[in-house]
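Comment thread on ticket #2218

A.B. wrote:
> Attaching the input chain for the structure job we discussed in standup.
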Amino acid sequence: MTRSRPRVLHFVTGGFSGGATQVAIQLVNAGLSGGRVEPLLVLRRKRRGDPVRIEELRAAGTPLQLVPGWSHLATIRALAKLCREFRPDVLVAHGFSEHLWGRYAGLLAGVPHLVHVEHNTRERYTRWRLAQTRWLAARTSRIVGCSEGVRQALLDIGMPADRTIAIPNGIRLDPFADADAHPLPGRVPGIVMVARYSRQKDHASLLRALALLGERGLRPPLLLAGGGKALHRAPVERLAAELGMREQVRFLGVARNVPELLLTHRIAVLSTHYEGMPLALIEGMAAGCAVIGSAVPGVREVIDDGADGLLVPEADPRALADALERLLRDDALASRLGQAARALALREYGREHMNARYETLFLELAERPSPR
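C.D. wrote:
> Ran it. Output below, let me know if you need it in another format.
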């Protein structure tokens, strides 16, 4: 017998550096405001987690619990205990490797429906973890890719086609409401890249592209916003110094004013090796920036090359420099692409679309018997 409002528990990393956590937070808050489900956010505690962000969420009224992250067994035991107390109809495990530990806990606690949400086209699957993922898939009601590219990647590793779907991620559009009041020719002729420092992101190719632009007489400012481990940030900083760009490149760290940065600059770039659904790039589109992205799965689905942005081959600084030069020298082209990108973001990538599709999924599952 189902409740009048199904309970939905979202489990995700508490690192706050990637899109998975942001999507989980958004879905919990949407559940609160919509009133059709009763949500709970559970974060796996991270050693480098941000306690300020956690307190901000609690102060805003987000229902939130933490479970230990020092060992997988500790995570599973604590989450299973929470599940027995909260008694969710649906447990949604976001991202790698949380989708493993979350679903194990859900099985132990007898949660009726498990949902695995994959947020990237490429994850660190060893043979053992892939075997676990396939075993869990047989006991999972739905497997969700955050884009069609991610869904295809899931099918390629053996996920069941009849239960594997795509629900594209969405963003908050409100912060970009006045983008039309910032026409591109009047913006700073500079570049913004919002991305955490990791092996996934390709800051190096962007810096090398900037060096090539310098040889062509162009020295646009570059703002790099994002967190991440010093292990990955330090080589980027060293490369900027080696290329003589100490004054041209600003390392902002985690920026809380990303909409403002995008609304006041001409170009948004996502130089990357792989993606799921590039929320940072979509924010650049919503801001009316002219956007450039690496032609990898996830990004290719968002940008129609030449129509609403420019695609460049992965890890190709010269092609990236060529694309940047086109946008910096041609105001008309940059404006046309920026306007088309904004129209697409408003039409397709508002968070309301994402929220509605997930809510429909949760309500449908809650009406069904458990598949186990």
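A.B. wrote:
> Thanks. Noting for the ticket: The two ends are 16 Å apart (CA to CA).
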